[in-house]
Write a structure and sequence with these properties.
Strand content: under 5%
Low-confidence stretches: none
Helix content: over 70%
Shape: globular
Number of helices: 13
Structural class: mainly alpha
Number of strands: 0
Order of helices and strands: HHHHHHHHHHHHH
Largest sheet: none
CATH class: Mainly Alpha
Radius of gyration: 18 Å
Oligomer: single chain
């Protein structure tokens, strides 16, 4: 339990710092959109390329991991879509609820996996993240195309939006470097490490800057619905599929850890870029992170 709590403290602290910096006008107002864009298009992709490019899936139960990930995310996504008419009448708000119920916080998942399982936990988490990020972004971009305020129209534009999504490009390059055996060259790895290291703090600061506590009451239903999927339904589906496939050990543990984390800060950046409800998204991110401070230790004790 202590491991989960210690891991969440810096995440919450950075969100609060971003909120304070924005409210005190420490930085010019037009600084924050630039930080969001830098994080989404440069910092997060660099983190993904390095983390995936340095890993090898040889000897890992990657096929079973992929099956559990695909099944859990697909079932959760379909449930959210079926519930959409009852969740909200506002399409932009639904994109926030969807991301709040589908995405996972990579940083928290990696940090806890490393604390509990060391280098093996990091390796397994990297493989899991490589699968999850691609599938999650395919789902989320599709949802924005259908229900968001995105300018994406038509099959060709949709395909382009998938192909040129910076997070998917980062995963693709990382997987190519890993599967081809090329790996990440030492100098490039050092550069990517420095750049990627900034992804989390900048992303969390951007979330904090966008937070408007006064708007949380107006998004209470979205927070509750997305959190029930995130901390309740998804972990149950993951446990059922892990049991069915016979996956065990560290591989099963890192998947469960990923599926009980709060939604990712990058969901806010995607909402900003593709026309989602950014106030609702920021509220969901922050409230889920606060809830995770209580729920993750409890779920960890029950499931791990």
């Amino acid at each position: 339990m202590i491991t989960f709590i210690y891991t969440l403290i810096p995440v919450i602290a950075l969100i609060i710092l971003g909120f304070v910096l924005k409210r005190t006008k420490f930085l010019p107002e037009d600084t924050w959109p630039g930080i969001e864009k830098l994080t989404y298009f440069v910092l997060f992709p660099a983190l993904l390329i390095r983390s995936l490019g340095q890993q090898s899936i040889s000897g890992m139960p990657w096929a079973l991991m992929l099956l559990v990930i695909f099944g859990t995310l697909t079932i959760s996504a379909i449930l959210l879509i079926l519930l959409r008419p009852k969740l909200t009448k506002d399409n932009a708000s639904f994109t926030s609820i969807f991301q709040g119920g589908i995405r996972f916080n990579t940083y928290i998942a990696f940090a806890i996996s490393q604390s509990l399982y060391g280098a093996t936990g990091v390796a397994m988490s990297s493989v899991a993240a490589g699968f999850m990020i691609v599938l999650i972004n395919l789902w989320c971009i599709s949802i924005f195309v259908i229900w968001g305020k995105s300018s994406i129209t038509g099959t060709l534009q949709f395909i382009k939006s998938i192909m040129f999504n910076p997070l998917i490009i980062g995963c693709t390059i990382g997987w190519f470097l890993s599967l081809s055996g090329i790996g990440v060259p030492s100098i490039a790895g050092d550069i990517l490490e420095i750049v990627g290291r900034a992804a989390l703090p900048f992303g969390l600061l951007a979330v904090g800057a966008a937070l408007k506590p006064e708007s949380i009451n107006g998004h209470f239903k979205g927070i509750v619905c997305s959190s029930l999927i995130q901390f309740g339904f998804k972990p149950l589906i993951a446990v059922a599929l892990i049991t069915y496939t016979g996956l065990n050990g560290v591989a099963a543990a890192v998947l469960l850890i990923a599926f009980i984390t709060p939604t990712a800060p990058s969901s806010y950046i995607l909402a900003r870029q593709l026309g989602g409800d950014i106030e609702s998204m920021a509220s969901i991110i922050t409230m889920q992170t606060l809830l995770a401070f209580i729920l993750m230790p409890l779920l960890g004790m029950l499931l791990l």
